[in-house]
Amino acid sequence: MVALAVLLVFGALWLARYFFPGTPQSSFLVFLVVLALGYFAVRGFLWARAHLLWSLRNRLVIAYIFIAVVPVLLLLTMAGLSAYLLYWQLGSFVLYTDVHERVERVSSVAGTMATAIALEAEGRRAVALALPEGPSTYLKAAQTELPGLQIEPGVGQQFLHGKDGGNQQSFAGLVLSGNELTLRAVTSRSTPSGRLVVSASVPVTPDLLDTLAEELGPIQFDVLRPADSGQGQAVPVVINRQRYTRVQEIATQGRTVPQAANPFDKLITGLVSLDVVDQNRMSAEGQPARVFAAFSTRPSLLNRRLFGRLGELGSAAVSALLVVGSVFLVIEFGSLVTGVVLTRTMTTAVDDLYQATQHVQDGDLTFRVRVRHQDQLGALGNSFNSMIQSVSMLIEEQRKRQQLENELSIANQVQSQLFPRKLPQMPGVELEAICRPARMVSGDYYDFIRIDADRLAIAVADISGKGISAALLMANVQAALRSDVLRHRAPMGNHPAEINAAEIISNLNRHLYRNTSDERYATFFFAVYDAGKRRLVYTNGGHLPPLYISGSRVERLETGGMVVGLFDDVPFEQGVVEIDPGGVLIAYSDGLIEPENVYGEEFGTERL
After folding, report:
1. Cα 73 from chain centroid?
2. N or C: which end of the chain has fewer CB within 10 A?
3. How many helices (H) and strands (E) does the chain have?
4. Cβ atoms 556, 547 nearer than 8 A
5. Which residue pairs from 552-557 have beta carbons closer than 8 angstroms and sit at least 24 positions apart in sequence?
6. How many whole angstroms separate alpha carbon 481 and alpha carbon 477?
7. At what angle do helices 135-145 and 70-121 cross, to 10 degrees?
8. Are 169 and 160 in contact (CB under 8 A)?
């Protein structure tokens, strides 16, 4: 309790320091927290040794984890970190190289234009025009390659002053002019009239960034300048305890990282620092301005740059590296699986024997040891099974016999009371019915209900399930059906009420749905025959369609709906059949058409 209280107090103070940074910190409390964590570590080890390490299988599993799994995970983690750092450095190198290529290109343009202007100043215009495609055409081509390129003669002399006080012939690099980042190159030439200085500058814009490093995805330049002591900023950027203000943020437009080429083609996010000259602080001492270029890419894109010079050999080298790595990984995984399987073979047999003794001790003589292998441990399991087999067999057979006899006796008694003991007699109608259970009891049901002198209700159903449960549900169905049908019996002297077969089935469906479990249902065929009108009204609730036969005409009575008892408020329809003299109505269950012969052929509806 004391150790837990120390951890709770430390957690409360940590939350307090998070919301209130001025909350003091206690070194003594940290010492107590270390002691509390050590205490819980010791208690956890003792509990694990008493509970988890009691099992031989757990001991071997933990041993394999420390011997094989942990080193492999550490190696994979190290390999992943190394690959990430490698591709980070490669992406940084690609971006750094492309930026400096643009700077060199600007420097080349500045040198070419300075040479052309110097030659014109000397009166050698013809020579100047002999430069590549002429100065103006050359400048237009350079502006196409470097969007926003500007040539300014006589500008940028301050960039040619060296740190030692001397003058330089040229300068090229990133320059922060005011709040705008540019690629700038300054070149000087000697002319008869004096020193000529030419400056070429290209603003760093999203269009320019879009031309950098096609192997990289989105690129963003963050331009930072040291914050003045009197300058405030809502969210300053702190690097190595130096506060910076964000001057400019430039990002590519429309560049995205493509989908991974394979599961190992993870997203690489890198950052590279670029040198920059702050034109506003060239003579000031202190921290210089900084430019951080962030990028996102994938190893598959950088591989194109890395192995692109090799052509097909480059892709073959990458494929070979992946294949070798995959083979090594498969071998390591196979070795681990082999060790686990061999260990599991031994420990499973021991654990099965232990579990078997516990079952026998609890009086469960039906439990058997699973013999997985034909070895000494398997022979031991067979001996154990043989020892309890004779006793458990006798007890189990006696129990099953008694249970089956009781259930079948009850089900038989219930079912025998449900079928009509005497078929109704009605002029002009001949009735026959039979039910032969395949297993002493059946889920099939039929009934005849005499409504009045001219009307007779006929019902055939197939109850889901077998045994006593189906017999009890059959009794429930019979009671509900008879009560609903007999309420249509007309009192003496009154006109008989019409019976809607669909309404009868709907009432029965709601009764079964609300009073039985979800998996219980019945297929049901219900009909009412009016002998005076020679008409049969019926509703088929998912039952096999009865057959009405008149001469050579065979009609299937299918009108109705779905099975009874599965869903509430299911619509049912009523069908009407005019009965001809000599017509035959056959209603049956699946027990009549599904029996198979020795060839596996069902009796079927056509034979019926």
Report:
1. 24
2. N
3. 13, 19
4. yes
5. 557/525, 557/527
6. 6
7. 160
8. yes
Report in angstroms the alpha-carbon separations of 573 from 445, 540, 541, 542. 22, 8, 9, 12
CA atoms lying within 13 Å on the CB side of residue 125: 2
* Contact partners, residue 451, CB within 8 Å, separation at least 6: 457, 485, 486, 488, 489, 496, 499, 528
* Separation CA 88–CA 81 (nearest Å): 10
Residue 320, class by beta-carbon neighbours within 10 Å (0-12 exposed, 13-18 middle, 19+ buried)?
A: exposed
Question: How far is Cα 350 from Cα 599, in angstroms, rounded to an integer?
Answer: 48
pTM, 2 dp: 0.49
Tokens of 173: 């690099």
Pick the closest to residue 563 from 581, 590, 528, 597 (CA basis): 590
| 386 C-beta neighbours (distance < 10 Å), count | 9
Question: Is the separation of the CB atoms in 165 and 180 below 8 Å?
Answer: no
| Distance separating alpha carbons of residues 272 and 221, to the nearest angstrom | 10
Cβ(449)–Cβ(456) under 8 Å? yes
Residue 492 in tokens: 């003496």
- CA pair distance 109, 431, nearest whole angstrom: 112
Which residues are within 8 A (CB) of 347 and not within 5 positions of it... i.e. 6 or more apart? Answer: 55, 56, 57, 60
Distance, in Å, from the CA atom of 200 to the CA atom of 206, rounded to the nearest integer, reads 19
Please give the Cα distance from 117 to 138 (Å, whole number). 13
Nearest partner of 210 among 172, 253, 177, judged by Cα:
253
From the first residue on, what is the mean pLDDT of each consecutive set of 10 residues in the chain (608 residues)?
79 74 72 82 73 67 76 84 88 89 89 80 52 63 83 83 72 87 88 81 89 87 77 64 84 87 84 86 70 89 73 65 79 75 73 79 75 74 79 79 78 75 88 83 85 89 79 83 82 69 91 86 92 92 93 92 89 93 92 88 88
Burial group, residue 339, by CB count within 10 angstroms (0-12, 13-18, 19+)? middle
Question: How far does the chain reach from its first CA to its final CA, in angstroms?
Answer: 81
Classify residue 534 by burial, with Cβ atoms within 10 Å: 0-12, 13-18, 19+.
middle
- Quote the pLDDT of residue 128: 45
d(CA 356, CA 389): 13
Task: Work out whether strand 150-153 and strand 194-203 pair parallel, antiparallel, or are unpaired.
Answer: antiparallel
